[in-house]
Write a structure and sequence with these properties.
10 strands; 5-stranded mixed sheet; alpha/beta; about 260 residues; single chain
Length: about 260
């Protein structure tokens, strides 16, 4: 009977493909990837809609556990004819550069601004990052997002530049603390880069590989190959040994005529 799939949620901008490949190589339990909106990811984990999720903190630590995997840098998305777009590759936008800009602040904001967003915050808050991107293209303002979201919503009429001194956007694996299963432990090992032979790993039902013989068993096999190659008998002597029918092994010299 096919086991129930392990449902792994993920939010926009997160790419779980490499972890999914590793899971399929190690597990017979199927993995189901479930796309989630950033604002709904924590709820989906809490209500059991997914077994775990790759999401953006913070989460309710009283109910959920979370392991931060990496942190993304923030970028400023602008029209291609904007002055910020004229910056050379490698040049960064500063927070002071945004003082005179209208900065869009969407409802599904994933960046944490302790002192509020920079610049002049637009009164209208777009419902989503996708809606905010459309407003940037229309010239209504600029948008600060993690780099992966800027890439996800790429348009030919928009570009982005890195923001120096801006907040980072962590990505974490999260699950219900008191519902940690063996499959969740396996996924933790995969996203943390543990090998299949890690001391903290466990058998997952993957097909076993034939072990290479070592020590005495390897020598026994080597001896067996040697015996087979010689037919199990003695080798024919080399050198100047006698040939059948030729006493002494050499042809007698003829006298001079």
């Amino acid at each position: 009977m096919t086991p129930q799939p392990f449902r792994l949620g993920y939010v926009p901008g997160v790419t779980p493909a490499k972890w999914a490949r590793t899971w399929s190589q190690r597990h017979r339990t199927p993995l189901e990837l479930v796309p989630l909106e950033a604002a709904q990811a924590e709820h989906a984990v809490r209500e059991g809609e997914v077994c775990a999720a790759l999401l953006r903190p913070p989460v309710d630590r009283d109910l959920l556990s979370a392991i931060v995997l990496y942190e993304e840098t923030a970028v400023v998305v602008v029209p291609t004819d904007h002055v910020i777009a004229a910056l050379e590759d490698g040049e960064e936008v500063t927070l002071a550069d945004l003082d005179t800009e209208t900065v869009l602040h969407c409802l599904d904001e994933v960046l944490d601004w302790p002192n509020g967003p920079p610049g002049s915050v637009a009164e209208h808050r777009p419902e989503s990052t996708a809606a905010a991107i459309a407003l940037v293209a229309a010239g209504a303002g600029v948008l600060v997002v993690p780099q992966s979201l800027a890439r996800l919503h790429h348009r030919r009429d928009l570009t982005y530049r890195s923001l120096a001194g801006g907040p980072t956007a962590p990505v974490a694996l999260s699950w219900v603390t008191d519902q940690k299963t063996d499959e969740i432990e396996d996924m933790i090992g995969i996203v943390r880069g543990r090998t299949v032979n890690s001391s903290r790993g466990r058998p997952t039902g993957a097909p076993a590989k034939e072990e290479t013989p070592t020590g005495a068993s390897r020598r026994d096999r080597s001896a067996g190959r040697t015996a087979n190659s010689t037919g199990g008998g003695a080798r024919r002597p080399r050198g100047n040994g006698a040939r059948p029918g030729r006493p002494g092994g050499r042809r007698p010299r003829r006298g001079k005529r």
